[in-house]
């Protein structure tokens, strides 16, 4: 049975990881604006998820300025699927 | 002691996450003139390929190679413009909408290339132009259709085919082109 993942459980992290499933990688400011959070908040979530191997980040450029590109890893994708399954089971009262 | 989320909190968290994903997917747009650029590039590539295959001269093979280069440059430019405009990289868009691995785009290209080649081999040049334009238009519309379908199922459609498959297809195309050019010289 799937279990709640404490690393993904904070709503902002669930939103971040779910949003990343829609793209191959996203630029930092694009994600920040979509999620409506501050730079520091997004950085902390990306750092925590990156330490667990759920996301990767790389330095790059966007519109001529240096920025960070963030992507979901296959490990993160699997962890997210398990976490979502656990949430659905909880909702269904299983 | 840490406790798990309540069912109503879990439902709200899921709803918010899916809403955020859908919001990002619906915000992605192609750069201005994208369909025209891709459609024109495919039309040029199809027409030059038909010419290169139908005319047994070295210059015609050169035209064929030039057509492939035109498409390659146009595709690369459009992918950079898409990424600049949206702040994301989307492999599904690259593969299916621009490089034409989506079923509708593949069929449009294959039918367009075959009929254009037949017209070129009979030297009906006005028909070559017309059919190449039709192929480019259908290809561009297939890309637009893919983007609409992506917005409905972003997580399922964000990915591309496997890298191995794309590399294999690319190698086959390059080897075929080289053999074609070499055999004509």
What does this entry show, briefly?
Chain A is 52% helix and 20% strand. Chain A is α+β, with helices and mostly antiparallel strands and 94 residues long. Helices cover 82% and strands 1% of the residues of chain B.
Structure report:
The complex is a heterodimer of chains A (94) and B (185). Chain A is of the alpha+beta class and 94 residues long. Chain A has one domain (11-91): Arc Repressor Mutant, subunit A, CATH 1.10.10.10. Helix content of chain A is 52%, strand content 20%. Chain A has a 3-stranded antiparallel β-sheet with strand order 1-3-2. In chain A, strand 2 (55-62) and strand 3 (65-72) form a beta hairpin. The longest helix of chain A has 18 residues, at 74-91. In chain A, 37% of the residues are buried. Chain B is an all-alpha fold and 185 residues long. Chain B has one domain. Helix content of chain B is 82%, strand content 1%. Chain B contains 8 helices and 1 strand. Chain B has helices at 7-27, 34-54, 58-86, 91-98, 103-121, 125-152, 154-157, 163-184; one strand spanning 88-89. In chain B, helix 2 (34-54) crosses helix 5, helix 2 packs across helix 6 and helix 3 runs antiparallel to helix 8. Chain B starts with 6 loop residues before the first helix and ends with a helix. The model of chain B has no long low-confidence stretch (mean pLDDT 90). Chain B: The chain crosses the membrane at residues 58-77, 97-118, 124-142, 163-182. Chain B: Keywords: Membrane, Transmembrane, Transmembrane helix. Chain B: It comes from Cellulomonas edaphi.
């Amino acid at each position: 049975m799937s279990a709640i993942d404490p690393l993904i459980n904070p709503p902002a992290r669930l939103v971040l990881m779910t949003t990343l499933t829609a793209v191959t990688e996203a630029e930092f400011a694009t994600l920040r604006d979509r999620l409506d959070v501050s730079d520091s908040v997004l950085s902390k979530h990306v750092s925590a998820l990156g330490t667990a191997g759920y996301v990767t980040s790389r330095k790059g450029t966007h519109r001529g300025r240096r920025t960070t590109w963030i992507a979901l890893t296959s490990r993160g994708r699997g962890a997210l699927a398990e976490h979502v399954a656990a949430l659905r089971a909880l909702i269904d009262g299983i | 002691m840490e406790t798990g989320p309540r069912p109503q909190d879990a439902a709200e968290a899921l709803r918010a996450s899916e809403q955020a994903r859908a919001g990002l997917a619906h915000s992605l747009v192609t750069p201005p003139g994208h369909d025209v650029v891709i459609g024109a590039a495919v039309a040029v590539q199809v027409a030059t390929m038909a010419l290169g295959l139908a005319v047994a001269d070295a210059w015609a093979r050169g035209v064929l190679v030039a057509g492939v280069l035109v498409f390659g440059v146009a595709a690369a430019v459009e992918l950079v413009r898409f990424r600049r405009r949206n702040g994301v990289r989307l492999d599904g868009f690259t593969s299916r909408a621009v490089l034409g691995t989506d079923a509708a785009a593949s069929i449009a290209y294959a039918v367009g290339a075959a009929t254009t080649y037949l017209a070129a081999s009979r030297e009906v040049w006005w028909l070559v132009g017309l059919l190449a334009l039709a192929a480019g238009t259908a290809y561009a519309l297939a890309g637009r259709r893919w983007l609409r379908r992506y917005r409905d199922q972003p997580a399922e459609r964000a990915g591309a085919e496997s890298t191995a498959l794309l590399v294999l297809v690319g190698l086959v195309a390059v080897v075929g082109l080289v053999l074609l050019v070499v055999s004509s010289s």
